[in-house]
Each structure stands twice: as structure tokens, then as C-alpha cells.
Amino acid sequence: MNIKRWVDEKTNAFISEIINGYNDELKIIVGYSDFDLIIKLKISTDSHSIYCRVQESTLGNLAINNLAKGAFAFVNGGGIRNNMKKGNITKADVIEALPWFNNVVVKKLIGQNILDVLEFGVSNYPQASGGFPQVSSELSFDFEPEIESKEVKIKVKKKKKRNQNLKKKKKMTLVLVVFSKKQINIFF
User: Fold this and answer.
1) What range defines the domain where residue 125 resides?
2) pLDDT tens-digit profile of 15-25?
């Protein structure tokens, strides 16, 4: 893992010693991908190069679909921080891509709540935003970027029935990945 984030050499040495104690664990292969899992178009600190902050990404889809296991789910794009190259995926790759110890929350919500969260997530578009939603394959959404309100249209996938419109008053179970339990109270 690259820890050259800190300027202070004593801090780098201290952190390197800790990481070296986990090297064998970090090298464990936990998966494989036939293609690159991309969130960044180029190596840059410019948030516009991190396209999971303005659209869905392959890595965002993989992460949320594995977490959701067929449920309706989403995670904010700002929680995903690094690409993964095709080939073996190690624990270190996962930690570099998903470095936060976020909370996974399962909530029963009405469709209107889900709509509100997605509209909030795209409200800054076309500016890059860490709140841009990466959704599970059970949900799909479109929004009109040129309309100021960023009205979102959501389609819900069921086992045999595909692409049903979201019912605003119907209760649904939603899996959310949140960095703070306080964040949940914004909408629910």
C-alpha cells in the first residue's frame, strides 16, 4: 500500500512499520476481475476526473451489488477512492478503493424517501459531488441535468417484472452505506 500521503518522515516510518506487520494479510486474493474497475479517468486530484462523482462507475456498481445481494441499495460516489486493475483483487486493493469504515444500514422506506435521496445526490450536477449515487442493479434512475430541479425518474426491477415505476407511497427495504449514522437522519 502507498502511504506517502504524509509529509513527516517519522510519521511515514511509523505507519510503514504498522503496515508491514499486515503485508501477508493485505496480499490475500479476495476476487478477480476480467476488466479494470474504474472510478478515475486519470490520476489527478481534480474531482472532475473522478467520474463516480458525476455518473455511475464499474467499481461503484460492483461494490454496491455485492453488498446489496439483490436488494435495493446505493452508496455515495465519494466513498469510493481508487481504481482496481483487471486481474486478481487483493485485500489491499479493496482497502485502497473503499478505505472508510462505513455503516451499512437497512431501512424500510417509502418510495418518496428514495426519490428524495437520489434527487439530493444529483442536485450538484454537473459539478462533481461525493454524494452522487452509485445504485444497485435493482434500481435504475435517470435525471434531466439541464433542468434546475434535477427531477429523478426511478425504475425498480423485480424478479419477474422489469422496470416498474417507483411507487412513491409503497414501502421498500433499502440498503444504505453511510459514513455517519447522523447522515441517515437527513431524510428519514
Assistant:
1) 51-80+102-184
2) 888 888 999 99
Residues counted in the chain = 188
Q: What is the pTM of this model?
A: 0.73
How many domains does the structure of the chain reveal?
1
- As a whole number, the mean pLDDT across the chain is 79
CA–CA separation, 187 vs 12, rounded Å? Answer: 40
What is the CATH number for 59?
A: 3.90.780.10
N-to-C CA span, the chain: 38
Give CA–CA dist 94/54, Å, rounded.
Answer: 22
The answer to whether residue 3 is domain-embedded is no
Establish if 9 belongs to a structural domain: no
The verdict on residue 125 lying in a domain is yes
- Joined grid coordinates for residue 38: 474504474
| Model confidence band, residue 46 (pLDDT cutoffs 50, 70, 90) | low
- Cα–Cα distance between 135 and 131 in angstroms, integer? 12
